[in-house]
Design brief:
10 helices, single chain, alpha/beta, 21% strand
Length: 284
């Protein structure tokens, strides 16, 4: 028997206690960035999700679609504008956001999951009042702040054996409009509402680095009391601040563990969840 066979068997044996631990538990995966754009990475993420589902883990996928929205706006001759890192969303942009997120991106993802052997069901935040929101601030246009999450439609889909795939558009409670919602925030709020065991944010970075230029300085575990010091020292900075904030809020509200994972590494979800070797940053 070749050594590669033995290694494969060891990998599977190592996964068993993790499968037993998480079977029947809910895991929310926020999917975006390069892992969504590159075809090879997309396939790796989707096969991870299907494998977790098949071993009895209840996986919920929450996705954004920034690059696709920008591409569609460019097609209609409209420039993308960002304020404090959030897409400024006027009425015309909101129409595009809704079409692209709830339509194209959501359904493409559902189709890929189904094609690869999953059983996926597409939902948007307006279905059955899943996400309700009010305007965050005039400065961002139709960008919403979630006021309420009703997870019952997602729970029903999970109970029926589906992998729910959720796009992050919310129903307005302060006007007859839809709102564009930050996908990390939406994933965190949904994880809390579902009493999820884990929230995984797929990003385009290795995780939290002590030295942003050196991937060897990855911080594997961060406990909540350490966060303010890491912000003060400039270790958590820029686009990482809102991601860490989402994780902190989720843990404070009852989610067992949160992970910031590099979606550029093939099968990073499986390595993080089903092996002894964590590869991202875990906040707990």
């Amino acid at each position: 028997m070749s050594s590669s066979h033995v290694e494969r068997a060891q990998v599977l044996a190592e996964a068993l206690p993790y499968i037993q631990k998480y079977s029947g538990k809910t895991v929310v995966v926020k999917y975006g960035g390069n892992a969504m754009i590159s075809e090879a990475l997309r396939k790796a993420v989707i096969s991870d999700i299907i494998l977790l589902h098949l071993v009895g883990i209840q996986v919920v996928v929450v996705h954004g679609g920034g690059p696709e929205i920008s591409a569609m706006l460019k097609k209609i001759g409209k420039e993308s504008r960002f304020v404090d890192g959030l897409r400024y969303t006027d009425e015309e942009t909101m129409e595009v956001v809704q079409q692209v997120l709830c339509g194209k991106v959501n359904k493409d993802l559902v189709a890929t999951l189904n094609r690869m052997g999953g059983r996926a069901l597409g939902l948007c935040g307006m279905d059955a009042g899943l996400f309700q929101a009010r305007k965050l601030s005039e400065r961002y246009g139709l960008v919403g702040e979630i006021t309420q999450v009703d997870p019952s439609i997602v729970e029903d889909a999970l109970a029926d054996g589906y992998i729910p795939v959720v796009s992050t558009v919310a129903q307005g409670v302060d006007g007859e409009t839809a709102y564009n919602i930050n996908a990390d925030t939406a994933a965190a709020k949904l994880a809390v509402a579902l009493h999820a065991e884990k929230l995984i944010l797929l990003t385009d970075v290795r995780g939290l680095l002590r030295d942003p230029k050196n991937e060897e300085t990855l911080i594997h575990v961060v406990e909540l009391p350490e966060v303010p010091g890491l912000v003060k020292d400039g270790i958590i900075q820029g686009g990482m601040i809102p991601k860490v904030d989402c994780c902190v809020e989720a843990v404070r509200s009852g989610v067992e563990r949160t992970h910031i994972l590099d979606g550029r590494i093939p099968h990073s979800i499986l390595i993080e969840m089903l092996s002894d070797e964590g590869i991202g940053t875990m906040l707990l």
